Amino acid sequence: MHWLCALLLSLGLPMIAPAQTPTVRIGVLGIFHTQHLTLAADPAGELLVSAAGQRIFLRGGSSCSLLHIRSAGASLLLSCGGSEVRATQMRASGRNQQATELVIAVPGKIKRRYFGVLDLKVADGELVPIVTMDRETAVASVVQAETAPGTPLEALKAQAIVSRSYLVAGGGRHSNFDFCDLTHCQFLREPPAADSPAAAAAALTRDLVLTFDEKPVTAMFTRSCSGHTRALAEIGLPQTAYPYFSVLCDVCYKNPVRWTRNVSRDDAALLLRGEMGRLAVDRVLGWNAVPSNNFIAHEQDGKVMLEGTGQGHGLGLCQRGARGMAQHGSDFREILEHYFPNTQLKVLLSVPESEFH
Ligand SMILES: [Zn+2]
Ligand SMILES: [Zn+2]
Prior knowledge:
The chain is an alpha+beta fold. It is built from nine helices and 21 strands.
């Protein structure tokens, strides 16, 4: 028996089958729909770029310290230090093909640092950067990006488990990679500092996932709810393996986040279709155009005025409620038991299955 299994059994934590791979492929910076990126190594490191059978080393202070990557038709055009390579795809990693620090920029718009291996190709004339990173790096990065500053550690730990469960059980919504870096999947920017609360929350819950019927749950979360969370059917969404339950949320029940919006009659008609309708409206008007699916509508001067409460779809973990529970002394287990009734916490093992039979 593997030592970790022995330790976990001694702690009395149930285990489920190991994941096939501890890495996830995240499509990054897709929101920029860019045809030009730059890539650099960390100042103290170097990158091995492989493309069209050639190897390029990117190193700070050398003649090739910044790689320009452009899409040209269906190809990539890589240029660095006066030389050019045309390829259909490229990979950047550490010297031994390992995950390493990558600095990727959309010139004039954004620069982000990742830890992983970068694969790049062209789809529909746009660059598609995909960073394959350790799943725990992704969990910490999502916790950092998706939580408010000052969130108590127990609420961060609950978020880490929810986000990890989603990374294990979700996926399949994109063809080129597992998850995007937007709220469509989960918001993800850079990995947090090793001594940050987000990194601590990921490390302290390492490999823990929510399960239902012995399988990891594609766990959802919402910024705030309207006083109770939602079941899928309530908001017109199809049933999933985990049905979700409507539970009372004390903080939002006593003091919900209120909002008002004006929308057109056509948009109001679309909103009657539940959460899918709301997402359709937000896709056109902006992500916060209609903050939640919990509202009453009044007609006024040819426009429809919405008065609502809550932020997001209202499913699963209410982040605001979780912060409130943590502030009142609940730990991450109590938070998750409250927002995900009938689930169990289990440990994912990344050791080969043969090691614990
Ligand atoms: Zn996505
Ligand atoms: Zn709530």
